[in-house]
Specification:
alpha+beta, six-stranded mixed sheet, 11 strands
Amino acid sequence: MKKFLKLLLITFIVLTIIFVPLIINILFKYDFNIWWLESEWSAGDALNFYAGILSFSGTIILGVVSIWQTKKSNNISEKLLKKDLLESTDFVQLQNKFEASVKHNNDSKITWSAQHKLDYGANILIEKYENNVEELNEYLIKLFFVNSSERNHIKKVELEHFMCVQDPDEGGLFWDDGSNSPIPLELYIDPIKDVHLNWTSNNEFYMQLKIYCEPNKCFDSMMKNKVNLCFIFQLNIYSFSDVKTEMLYKLWISKGKRGIYNVINTNSTINDNKLIDDNQ
């Protein structure tokens, strides 16, 4: 195909530069005695006119080639940008490790961690409750992660959504109408979404959550009964090169004896990966 196009281009150049001027020169030497072939032009006028056409055509062709090259260059730049995005993405995976402890509070006051406490920097999650509630239980949960990327580009991490899902069961929570639909519970993140990263090595860290809930209500029951429980949450991971990676995580746990929680499975998925808009 390339050889054919090259041959076609050479043929076009030879015809336009050599043969057309030669034909003009020959035609103007003969008198055909035909009225519609008679002209007041000379061969020089015709050649000048033809030269103008060639110049105009060359300008058009150069413009088309320039547009094509610009479009090709933009495509290459877009591919390089996508490549850079992938290379600067931190693929942070959720580990098969889970820790949780509960503290029974004698009031409904929600407290943040003091800087000298081990749970400093824990994100606060709250189950919806009525104003007349007298006390709340406090669950302290640790979630563990590993950055499987070759380099660590993490600048900041945000907790975007957090949901708990459990199947209905007679030994746990169940719908009044006897439905088999899963029971979802979304927790409110208040007020700071920034996650404090507790690094245990160069590429491993854990985050802490303080979850406040009414005793024996939805979340408290999910954590206490023997039915398996799934946590679903999203983290927004920001890199130093202004790349935002949205990660969706799922963690399934089972409850053993003496309040020991066992991880059944984890799932870590990249939802989106994009450059941060400076105008946002």
